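Write out this protein's structure.
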Amino acid sequence: MRHPHTRTTRRRVVGALTAALLCAGGLAAPALAAPAQEPAAPALADGLALTPPMGFNNWNSTHCRADFDEAMVKGIADLFIDKGLRDAGYQYVNLDDCWALPDRDANGKLVPDPARFPNGIKAVADYVHAKGLKLGIYTSAGTKTCNSAGFPGALGHEESDAQQFADWGVDYLKYDNCNNLGVDARTRYRTMRDALKAASARTGRPIVYSICEWGENKPWEWASDVGHLWRTTGDISDSWSSMLSILKQNLPLAPYAGPGHWNDPDMLEVGNGGMTDTEYRSHFSLWSVMAAPLLIGTDLRKASQATYDILGNKEVIAVDQDPLGKQGTVVSSAGGRWVVAKEMKDGSRAVALFNESGTAQRIATSASAVGLPDADAYTLRDLWQHRGYNTAGTIAATVPAHGTVLLRVAADPDWAARPPAVELGLDGSPLLVAGAPATLTSTVTDLGRTPARQVSVSLTGPQGWSVRPTSATTAAALATGRSLSTGWRLTTPAGTPTGSYGLTLEARYRSPSGQRVTSTLALTASVVLPPPSGTSYLSDLPWLSATSGWGPVERDTSNGESAAGDGNPLSIGGVTYAKGLGVHALSELSFYTGKACEKITADVGVDDEKGAKGTVAFEIWADGTKAASTGVLTNAQPAQPVTADVSGAQVVRLVVSDGGDGVDSDHADWADARLSC
């Protein structure tokens, strides 16, 4: 897989973040201009891929390593059955690059690698078909595939290769874009379309056609009569930044998706280890609400139960597979608090409340805002908790950092049979100094049309912490829109190590019919050190959180590549710096300043290690206020001095975004960065 800033691995990431990205609260969000006129129904109306394809592809977990072989493919097919994935909707077991020998035979035919596939591809297809599944294969619309070993591509061999695929029993073709000799993309992809159609006619083997040209030529504008799905972006990688960047590129393309013609934001990374389970649930939820193909990218032979729980959530899958085939659209996204709504065939709406930011956020919308008709009340089902409620119309939740609450909301005449939804919230700073008391306020709010009765609330922290209420923790009843507010005094033991700790807010109540309901909200509190007096280098201070688009944030070196500690001396415009922070866009660092600091200074720019490549923009935020920004900087520019007044801020954030042209080679330096307190 060719990563956004390297040319040494598999395939090129082309396709920038949408140029019209806005920065809301320091977090990039797409400017949602009026969408283009919705395309007509596709001419490629062959009854295939009427819902987004679901299955497995080996690339994200194996690349071209030796463990990609016949045994793996058969093992994945077995697990589809054993783990219930076939019953959940997963169909395709797809081979990516490296399945063939580098040379064709004397007749110009493709030759499966006998070391990987000693019995050939047809035998694998037969095994997969016997399980009630389908087999996919890969090649490129060029002279060679994307791997550096130079496996044969299909350019100039379309008819022969398509016939081989059909003869082997292949059901799905992923057609990449490498080594294409500059031949027009539409011509190349239409030629293979026609070859597949002819081969299918001769053999009776229909083949789903996946166009993988990375969004370079805007296939959403022309490919609905060419393929069944088309990649809208460069390759995904197993990182929060990559997933987020691709999400933002794919969301504005909703008008182009529908049955038999899908936007493809690339395969799933769920389970590969580069994100948290919370982030993977967001990944899976957001791909589903975008009606994206769901192609598992982790080696299921090694997957945890948590991974299977995410991939096998049938209620979330039902959102993706809804036969109406609508891609979700953005309702709002201010401050990284996203609401994405998807119209469903039964008239309901799937609603994703997605928190892009690094701290818990309240995200709210309404039934009318997501397109539901006026009604006395609505049913609201949480698709991860598998619980149903009624709401008077407000749709809201406190969503953890990088988390998503996925709901299905309907104007249902039987709404009164369900208990009222309640919203839990916790106000006050979750940043605690060991031994010093802090005050927090919890709220339990009835969102339902019916009252919540016998309401009680509790807040718990780690063992040894003192958590005491300072006001009432019970209420006889809460009417629609009314809240129980409770003050809490929280003290961590002196000497508590810095770091993140869990808090649990729990509400118990009864519905009017007497049904008992328990609702919980898991939150994170951080024990921090007071900022030091005087002037300090930021690279010498602990951060609250740190994200970087490729590899970790590096202290006193450049970003380097993906491994920790692989950076070089910080260098901007030929000037070398001994101190600073090296990052890769998209990046955000936060530091606790405790309202005790005055100023941040730094020399910023694109690091010299990528030559003439890279465009970035720097911002410094003091709590919710942008205190300084640079505009777009390129590698051709010397370091730019930046100074930010952060007086009175509890937290400062250092944000690096791309320059509007994607994240390719966006290595950025906060050189000589200092904090004065």
